[in-house]
Predict the structure.
Amino acid sequence: MAIKRRISGSVIGIIGYLLSPLSWWNDLFLNIPLAYACAWLVSLVYKPAFLSSFVISYWITNIAGLVIMHKGIEKIVKKGNGDTHYTKRQFLKDLAVSLAYTGLIMLLVKLGMIRPIGDYI
């Protein structure tokens, strides 16, 4: 049973790590493309919402990654089934890290380095 718990915790932790802002390459290959796709879809309906939907989508991928990774690691190291509570302090820390990265993305959009697909054509 412990092996299954550790394997599932490892898989969950890896998925979380891939989405989290803790790896230097994940933004380029995962979070930004996911956020961009969401923002592009929103901009098809309402073009001025590109920036806000990009930021919100990017923020969600980062927070989700940190939370998922945290849960995976807890499942690996805890005895029993790994069910523990995600504290307010842990959430606020994850939120602060994500907001810092979000500020960077907002700056890149404002500088025109990231735009809707239609603006490139």
Q: What stands out?
A: Helices lie at 2-19, 26-45, 50-77, 88-110, 117-120. The chain has a mean pLDDT of 83. The first helix runs from residue 2 to 19. The chain has five helices and no strands.
